[in-house]
Every structure is written in structure tokens, then in C-alpha cells.
Amino acid sequence: MKKWIIIAIAAVVLGVIGYFAYGVYDRTQNRQTALAAYETTAVVDGTLTSTIGATGTVRSKQSADLTWKTTGTVGSVSVSVGDLIEQEQVLAELEQTSLPQNVILAQADLVSAQKALDDLLNSQTQSAQALKAVEDAEQALEDAQNPELAQARALQAIADAEKAVDDAERSVRYLQSSADQTDIDIAKAEVALAEKNLDRAEDLYEPYKNKPESNLRRAQLLSNLAKAQQQYDDAVRKLNAMEGTGSALDIAIANANLATAQAQLIDAQREYERIKDGASPGDIALLEAQLADAQREWERMKDGPTADDIAAAQARVAAVEATLSQAWIEAPFAGVITISHPKIGDQVGPNTPAFRLDDLSTMYVDLEVSEIDINEVVPGQVVTMTFDAIRGREYHGVVTEVGFVGNSVQGVVNYTVTVELTDADSQIRPGMTSSVDIIVSQGEEALLIPNQSIRVIEGVQFVYIMDGSGTPAAVEITLGASSDTHSEVLAGDLQTGDLIVLNPLAALSDEDDTPGGFFGGMREMRDEGENNGGGF
Length: 536
Hints:
12 helices, single chain
């Protein structure tokens, strides 16, 4: 009987021991399974780079759509797509005969305008004319204030006019009636002498008549021949007049000369009548005013043309050149022809498209950056960029301009940021789309942790690390700058090499209610973390 009691007690004891052993084993297995589910990574030292991402479009440094300015027919096209162009190079021209009249006449106007400008800049004519006007005005005023001298000049003018009338009347008489035989003989001798001189001049010129016109000796002999011919003609005309053989034309000319001399005599007599009693106060005042005007003009012109005169002449030249330039299209800057429309024979009009010119020496990308990030972007920041059209290549650039005025589209406000590419090549073309990362900050060496591992509980930031026993433990931290993947740790019980749990909440067990234990003590943290979204 005792033996069965002992056996029963032993069995119970073994059962209890087995139960408790199985429980311990089961909990150990569960914990090992939970620990195996954790994902960990080490805390590292590194430099944190904070970037802002955006998408932009490539453009050239400068671009121009060139159009025709007038009507006409395309006569020549000297460039094609892809050609490198110098500034002011002519790209295409219209046929001269197809241009409007004002453009054709602009060539003559340009010659006149340029001559006027050249005269203004280099000629002394205007200042000389101004000085002569002053001298004439002074003389006129002096004459008016000294009537005796003016009267004497007027009387002399009358005497000269009377003599001219007498000479003209004598010429008419010679042409209409024969002279004394003595005068006729003298006239005949003058004709013979003039004829001899003419023959001699012709003989001297004969060897040189086929020489170039630039030959100085030929020019001199030709001038002498012309003078001898004139003297001979005058002598013959005089002899004919004396012999009463003047032609109807000679008589008409003589009568016209007589009428002119008589009219000049009348003018001289009228001028004398006007001044014989001296100049009136009104005449003196007028002459003084004219002198003052002449002196002012001389003061203005004596040192050369004024800036206003030069500007006006230059403006006239520029206006004519602008009209004339409508006959062709020239490049406003150096670049590459990216679009070409005209063909020889095309009929064009104002604003008809001709070419597109792009300066590809520098390439830019225009980005749209959100108002949330714009205050972190400043000129000079370095950027990296990639292009969908260029696989496997990263390019670099620098921020050159940050917009101050936002563009609102459907309630979203963006600002334009311009980036200059620093290593652009021929693969990059205007219009391409680029993905750009602007490096807004780059810290010094610091402890870095993945953003995935950060949890926030009641506003406090935590991470979970594996302690010495292989169990996750919560560590409170203070964060600094962040990038898309990592954050900088400013304060907290972390060291380089510590293993951080990336998925702490996924492996927590509700079965361990040990007071103060990790799984029990952290349950409240876990629940609050899950309610707050479970992450940073």
C-alpha cells in the first residue's frame, strides 16, 4: 500500500515538473520566434544630405523666334537646322524687286542720312556759315547806323547798274547794225589769233587724247583746248555782231541781258530811295534782332554740333537702316538654328515665321518648387539631376535664381527655381524633362538612423535597440536634420554600432505580462504608437 502511494506522489510530482518545464519551453520557443522576426540595422556615423526633389524642363540660355517684317518673295536662304550662327549673320533675304517701295527707296535715303551725319561730325561748314551770318548781320546793322556809308554804297550800286545797262545796249546795237571798219578789222585780227591758238592747242592735245583720264598732262591739255575754243567762239561772235551778222539767238540773249541790267538798275534806285533818309527805328530793331539770332547760332555751332543735333542725325540713320533691314533676317545673337521654315520662292508677309535660334552655350532647367520647401532654396545650392531621355547618367548643376512670386494652380502654390547645368553635353536638348534633387543642407559627421525605425509616443521620439540579452529596449532620442531615408541624432543613449529594430511593433507579444518586462512594460507605448500611425 505504501508503495502505490509513493508511486502516485512521484507521478504527480513528475507531472507538475513536466507541466512547468513545458511552459518554460513553450515560452522560450515563442520568444525565440518573436526575436527572429525582428529586422535590425546598425547605427552608423555619416554625413547627412538633405534634398528637395522637383521636376523641371530644360531651356537654352537664350531663344528667339525670328519672323519676317515685310512682304516679298524669299530670294535666298543661307542656313539650315543645326548650323552654328554668329551674331548679326544674315540668314535669309527677300528678292529686291519684290519689296515694297518704301524699303527699296530706303537705300537712297540711307546714303543721304549717312552723309548728313558725316558732315555734322566732320565738316566745318555749319560753323563757318554761322560765323558768316554773324559778320553779315553786323555789317547790315553798321550800314543802317551809318547812313552816309550806306547811301554812298547805294549810289555806287546805281552807277554800276547804269554802266551794265549801257554795255548791254551797246551789245544789242552791235548785233543789230555793223560797226566802223576799224573796229571790224581789229575783230578780224582777234579771230585769226584765236583760231591760231585753237589749232596749236589741238595739236598739243592730239598725242594725249587716248591716254587715261587720270593722266594729269592729258587733263591739263584738255582744259587748255576748252579755253582756246571758248576764246575763238567769243571772237567770232564779236566779229559777227560788228558786221551785223548776229544770229537771232545772239540777239535774243543780248536783249535778255539788257532787261536784266535794267531791272538791277531799278532795284538799286529803289534801295537808294529807301535809305537816303537813313534807317527807321523799326529797321534798326530788326537788324539788331537778326544779329542777336546770328550770334546765338554761332555760339551753338562754334564748338561743333550739339549732342541733340548728333542724336537726331543718328536717329535718322537708324530709322532708315531699320526700314532697309526688313529685306532680310539676321541673327540677334550667336547660337544654333533649331527650326527653319523659309524656302526660296516662298511668298511671305509681316510676322510670317522664319527661324528659331537658340544659344546652347549654357543650359538651364526651370523647376516648380512647393511653397512648403521654397524658403530652404537659395542661389548657389548644388543639384543633381537625371533625364528620362538619357539613361544611366547623372548630371549636376547649381541654383541661379529663386522666384519671389508664386504661381497658384488649383490651390497649389509653386515657385519657379532656375538651375544652371554645369556639365551639360550634346545629349541634353531644350524641352527635355528632368528630375532634380536640390541639396539644401549637408551636415558634418554625425550618428545616423533610418527614418523607418523612429517612433513617436505622446510627442516623444523613440527608437528600439537590441540590448545585451538580445531583447529590444526603448531609447528616447532628439533628432536634427532629416533626409528622405535617414535622420541625424542630436541626443540619446545611442552609439555607433548599436542594432536598431526597424519593425519593433510587428513582433511584440501580448502574452508576456511580466511586470516591468519589455513586452509588458512597452505595451502601452506600443498601443499609443499604433494609434498614432506606428511611425515617425
